[in-house]
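Re: beginner question about structure tokens

> Can someone show what the tokenized structure looks like for a real chain? I only ever see the sequence side.

Sure, here's an example I had lying around. Input first:
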Amino acid sequence: MELQQLEKNISYTFKDKELIKKALTHTSYAYEHRKESNEKLEFLGDSILEFITSKYLYENYTYLKEGEMTKVRATVVCEDSLYKIAKMHDFGDFLYLGKSEKKTGGNTRPAILADSVEAVIAAIYLDGGLEEADKFIIQNLEGEIRQATKHVGDKDYKTVLQEKLQEHGEVKIEYEIISETGPDHNKRFEAQVKCNKKILAKGEGKSKKDAQMHAAKKALDDLRKE
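And the corresponding structure tokens:
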């Protein structure tokens, strides 16, 4: 599809079209065509996203304490939120993927789509400055931030899972990191949670803590279905 459509979707027109192309270039395509991938843009976009979200929370949620702002930011600046943005704007239709990645449905994979959003944020910043990047981020995350601030006092998934599993007495709950992939600036971790040595669920994330939290959430979801 034409990139003009993506520009229309995200309400931003690039002066430098090569920037948006690079932001959508997955490593698999870059390797096959000897081009630069979007990895460095992802790295920059991740930092811009954290900064803009922090600034927005500081300016608009003055009643939140530092720890609460950190918790809200962690809830919002995550793969799930970025994946939703990518789906909303049909990023998957515009990604440059290698042949094998295309065949295996790479344009629908949450990790690839979330990373592409970070890369596009960096591309917008480099092309139009911080104000334009700010506009894109807040337009797309304002609702998520509002929702997260409502639940900032809630217990995290690991705490809720522990309480649920210990309703009828003491149990041994363990979290293990079972895999670690990707370059240093863009690590992916997979964790599993076990109760009395029985594996309950697995989860992924950009940090060990995120992976553990995702595993706990999936375990809770499964327990609620029973």
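Each token stands for a local structural state, so reading them left to right follows the chain. The chain is about 60% helix and 10% strand.
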